[in-house]
Amino acid sequence: MIAPDTKNWTWVLERPCAECGFDAEAIAFAAVPEIVRDGATRIGSALERDDARVRPDEATWSVLEYGAHVRDVCRIFDTRLALMLAGDGVTAPAFENWDQDATALADRYDLQDPAVVAEELAVAAYHVAAAFGSVPADRLDLRGARSDGSLFTVTSLGRYFLHDLVHHVHDVRG
Fold first, then answer.
1. What's the pLDDT tens digit per position in 62-80?
2. Contact between 68 and 104 (Cβ < 8 Å)
């Protein structure tokens, strides 16, 4: 059993991540779609490895589990972006809480088929990349709120989302 991740990762919007090197401030919003597609491609390639199902140790997910997680992250952020864009620009829509660790267990990330996960990740990444790529410049300041009260603009949501992908590309490098 892997210990649940209880960190509030929103700090990555304020300073670079020492683990993966991601620097949100250095990312132009227009680069979000390309970075999403690149990250999904890299994780998809990692899912082709013979050891994709093997955990490197008892406390670390396998490539398969990271791939399934990133697929679901793409889906979640596609939904969150849509909520923000559908908003009235005054009230920040609230994002439904998502427990990534409970999802990993309930959906048995460890037992999924790596080829299927790679295909689903590619589709989810394509959709969320297209969604971020189609945001008009005058909508970048729309806001959304996570259940813990963290506020995001469309721009900061994109950067925050990117960190997840970049970080997990770092996790699965091999």
1. 999 999 999 999 999 999 9
2. yes
